[in-house]
Amino acid sequence: MANNEFELRRQTVASSLAERKLDGLLVSFGPNLRYLSGFTGSNALLLLTAAKSVLFTDPRYTIQAGLESTCQVHISKGPLAVDMVAAIARMRVRRVGYEPAMMSCDAYRSLDDRMPPKAALVPVKGWIEELRMVKSPAEIARIRRSVDTNSQAFEQGVARVRPGMKEQDLAAELEYRMRRLGAEKPSFETIVAGGERSALPHAQPTAARF
Question: Which terminus of the chain has a lower count of CB atoms within 10 Å, N or C?
């Protein structure tokens, strides 16, 4: 995905902060964070204001963050929340929106206890999720490519099914075909089940044979 698409998304959010009576938005939920920054690591916080966007992550992701995101990147040597709150104080951000449904009570308390005296966390429900519901032409094209890739992988994988084949082997074959066709990885664990196990809605592949 082109970096300018992430920048446009952040601009859309930044331009709506004032009407929501916010000075900034804290994004901690992985899919929303990736949607706005492009970053795919497992540990990050994004602070978005009208003036700038800062991505906080740890030293493991120094190179990755620089490659994936055009946000300003801050590498934290300790808890991300400590450095982010320091940035809130430095930037004089007062009302900071956060994702209440996506943040644990411990994470909220850790942030709230550290907030500067004149700053406050303000719950914002479903804002980024609503934006994600409307797909851009580029996103629609990627969805179509994904469907085509999965369909081809399925056809190629099924063609190799033989009596006595293990569920695990077929799952591995399907995932191999997906990657050979250009997929990054499955979006969820591959489900393969035979016989009585085929009635399980979320069956995990085993050594059972067809």
Answer: N
Q: Which two tokens stand for residue 141?
A: 């094209």
pTM: 0.84
Secondary structure (3-state) at 109: helix
Other C-beta atoms lying within 10 Å of the C-beta of residue 122: 17
> What's the length of the chain?
210
| Coil, helix or strand at residue 200 | coil
Contacts with 146 (C-beta within 8 Å, 6 or more apart), sequence order: 183
Residue ranges of domains in the chain? 3-133, 137-199
Return the CATH architecture of domain 3-133.
Answer: 3-Layer(aba) Sandwich (3.40)
Give the residue from 1, 7, 5, 17 showing the smallest Cα distance to 71: 7
Among candidate residues 173, 168, 165, the one with its CA nearest the CA of residue 209: 165
Q: Which two tokens stand for residue 57?
A: 């992550």
In b/e form, how buried is each residue of 182-206, taking b as 16+ CB within 10 angstroms? ebeeeeeebbbbbeeeeeeeebebe
pLDDT digits (tens, 9 = 90+) for 101-155: 988 899 899 899 999 998 999 999 999 999 999 999 999 999 999 999 999 999 9
Residue-by-residue DSSP string for 12-74: HHHHHTGGGT-SEEEE-SHHHHHHHH----SSEEEEEESS-EEEEE-GGGHHHHHHH--SEEE
